[in-house]
Amino acid sequence: MTGQAMNGEAAIEILSPGPLASVQDLGRHGCLALGVGRSGAMDPLALTLANRLVGNEAGIAGIEFTLGAFALRFHADAVFALTGADCRATLDGLALPPLWCMTARAGQVLKGGAARGGMRSYLAVAGGFRVAPVLGSASTDLKGGFGGWEGRALRPGDRLPLRAAGRAVPHCDWGLAPESLAALCGPADAPIRVVAAAEYGLFDAAARRDLVEAEWTIQPDSNRVGYRLAGPALALTRRVELLSHGILPGTIQVPPSGQPVIQLSDANTCGGYPKIGAVIGADLWRLGQARLGSRLRFALVERAAAVAALRRQALAAEALFARLDRARRAVA
């Protein structure tokens, strides 16, 4: 959908979006051959959790806030949930716990303070926002300028219409204890797991060792396209010239500087730099919550371990969402 919601229409109004806020779902799949990237939430687990808290399907679009510091007004009653980085949210000044599902009444203001313990927070509303999909997804492609809300980051004064307008809105005031996510997310301080990529064997022994033994700092010029890392220079055994080829979120490329770049949600669809590794699917959400200036460590795993980790995560999510559904029915 383009344009603004009409005054009086059931919507939320962005009073302040914070450093960067955009409409995102779980991404635009099947379009890489067209040169269109995935986009989507940087922390898909957090967006999925927000949706399931309010009773939505996992892939419904929500709002991704970066580093908190946002404010919005509800122009209609709505059930909402906030997940991801704890931004010490308040509703008309009332402090809300993290991972909480709440009913907002028309006129109430939701504010998020500076995020702590993460990078991105996610807002879902029951029924979702009335945003038209583009190429099968409502995610904002910030590079291409399409999808989401007018193909751009949100601005003060934007009014996003609600799909559930006119429906009865139940009273909700419940949520999850943070420790309930332990089985889903794993230890917060664990290394990020990677598998060897196609050109892994072309890097010298020191580079392969440094990949997993060094500490890497996320550079301040990083963004949703990719995280630039600072650490030991990773050297090849010989110079190679590669044709541009397909790449995906999680791909770790090494440009001539030797400083790796991890492709993320707004990743390019192709590139020619040699690839030393790829972050496994089960750990991609951790990159979405890694703050600029923070440090990362990597651990090399085999493909079988990567597949097993994704399966364990899916099973843990299924068990958690089943508990959520039972809890929602109990308080309905």
UniProtKB/TrEMBL annotation:
It comes from the Bacteria. Residues 33-315 form the Carboxyltransferase domain. The keyword RNA-binding does not apply. GO terms for molecular function: ATP binding; hydrolase activity. InterPro entries: CT_A_B, Cyclophilin-like_dom_sf, PxpC. Coiled coil: none annotated. This is Biotin-dependent carboxyltransferase family protein. It comes from Roseomonas acroporae.
